[in-house]
Amino acid sequence: MQIKDSVALVTGANRGIGRAFVEALLERGASRIYAAARDLATLDAVARLDPTRIRTLKLDVTSTEDSRAAAAQAKDLTLLINNAAVLDMGGPTDVPVDAVRGNMETNFFGLLNVITAFVPVLERNEGSIVNILTLLSLASIPGVAAYNASKAAGWSLTQSFRADLARRGIQVHGVFPGLVDTDMARPFGSPKTPAIDVARATLAGVEADEEDIYPDPMSRQVYAAWRADHKAVERQFAAM
User: Fold this and answer.
1) Which end of the chain is less enclosed by CB atoms within 10 A, N or C?
2) How many whole angstroms separate alpha carbon 218 and alpha carbon 151?
């Protein structure tokens, strides 16, 4: 699909990659952008980027009611970008179970809630879905066990939706960034890609009809290594 003149919705649009997506969509000529977040007040600065084209929406992705209400408001949507996510630190034996549940609620069930709510809209408008996943969907770093598991589940869900929605004319893209320069990635010390670069590369991948998008140098390098020897990458990540 083409981004120019599209109507997009970005979850978690108040900061980080989500805000970068709003900026990149503006650059590429989207006609309308629904910027969504749990707290409308956190979207004030985002709305000021272009008050004419940006509309703010309250959307807690863990809420079925919020997801359905958002779909009822954004009936003209053609591009759904599922970006909202949480990350809790902790290995598999010490991360609190509530943290695991919280990561799954947002990163997996949130994905399910929002996509399910918007399928009728996207089918009617011949739209597309972009799910922001992570390289950790492919190989796990032990210190973020809950995040790894939730994002790996999100990858599996992405493939299920891709197969199911193809017959309804909806394309589903999975995006697997490496470390991105956001608040979420602050605990990690490795070099990080600017969020705007990830957003721009993702939209370019959507326009090129790439089902799986690796939007930064780290993700492309690791994916190539994973294809060649996924066990070697597993061992490499396990040592981090």
Assistant:
1) C
2) 18
Tokens of 160: 């299920």
Categorize the per-residue pLDDT at 14 as very low, low, confident or very high, splitting at 50, 70 and 90: very high
In angstroms, rounded to a whole number, what is the distance separating the alpha carbons of residues 127 and 76?
10
Is residue 194 pLDDT above 80, yes or no?
yes
Could you give the count of Cα atoms lying within 13 Å of 15 in the half-sphere of its Cβ?
12
For residue 147, pLDDT beyond 90: yes
The C-alpha atoms of residue 62 and residue 53 are separated, in whole angstroms, by 26
Average the pLDDT over 190-210 and give the result: 96
Given a cut of 80, is residue 87 above it in pLDDT? yes
Place of tokens 């919705």: 9
Whole-number Å distance between alpha carbons of 54 and 62: 23
CB atoms near residue 69 (< 10 Å): 15
3-class secondary-structure state, position 141: coil
- Torsion 221-144-115-6 (CA) sign: negative
Q: 66 Cβ partners below 8 Å, 6+ apart?
A: 58, 59, 60
**pTM, entire model:** 0.96
